[in-house]
Specification:
Order of helices and strands: HEHHEHEEHHHHEEHEHHEEHEEHHEHE
CATH class of the largest domain: Alpha Beta
Number of helices: 15
Helix content: 25-40%
Structural class: alpha/beta
Strand order of the largest sheet: 5-6-7-8-10-13
Oligomer: single chain
Mean pLDDT: 90
Shape: globular
Radius of gyration: 21 Å
CATH superfamily of the largest domain: 2-enoyl-CoA Hydratase, Chain A, domain 1
Number of domains: 2
Number of strands: 13
Distance between the termini: 61 Å
Amino acid sequence: MSRAARGSSAPPAALLLPLAEAVDQLLAPDAAERFSPVAGVSLLAVDLDAGGRSLDVEETQQAREALRSLPAPSVALAAGSGLGIGKALTDAFDVVLTDRSQLEPLRAAVERSPLAAGALAQLLRHGEARSIEAGLVAESTAYSMLQGGPEFAAWLATRRPAPAPPDEGPPVRIWRELDRLHLRLDRGHRHNAFSAAMRDALCEGLELALADPSIAEVVLSGEEPSFSSGGDLDEFGSLPDPATAHAIRTTRSVARLLARCGDRVRCELQGACVGAGAELPAFTARVIATEDAFFQLPELAMGLVPGAGGTVSLPRRIGRQRTAWLALSGERIDAATALSWELVDEIRSGAGS
């Protein structure tokens, strides 16, 4: 019988534990039940600055293994100038915060979608050992599972999409200049919301680049004002079932094609780079952003994980912990921060060409 079923006490979701106490609980046989959304605990937060006893090598290794197996995300708070006795554990946490004020909004975001948050943490922890292809399949599997879950259903129930005006032309403009192929998202009136038709058109353009070795460079850009505001929300939940959605997602994969020809792709970004608008460019060799660009992963608030390849592409550019923070918090970062994190390679004044 689970801890939740038998009514045993578990640390409250908002509790910030000192390192020594957290390690004692992590090493308990029922650690997975203590820190699980099933038990009502959506987040394990550990204060590395709280002091306490030192950990020996065996305890540290056991705690690292326990952190990798928790059903809930883990956060280390290291606000001091040094990481003290918890230094050897720092990279095992899902997120590390150096500002205490960030903890409460992160906890609140996780508590709104604890099942999706747990799935995201598990997906990212094991992503480093996966190939790009295996990572994309794992991401789609988790995304599809969550589409059948209560958190996505609750979000979907709040949606009352208004009829959108039809696109006046193709969702992606494709043209060639000598050995350069241009792929330009062309739903500017919808901030280039990523629709099924846009996905299909991008796949066609990238397949052309892969089939033609004379194409030396691909330029991926978006009609102003935004590169892409992410998935077209009017299409969310429109497929007949999550299994079919998974089959389509792994059949027509812009992420897979970008990964295959990414060393030839230059991405030019401006305005909103949200969801797919942040995830897909991270596969490419060079990302240039204007000063007004911002980046955000909003999927957790919908009860989902990133689904356009972000759990594969973003950790390879900015690391697992920063990816986890972006996805769990839903916070925006500006172009300057993206540059310092190496999510973009250059900031350029004005709109992309």
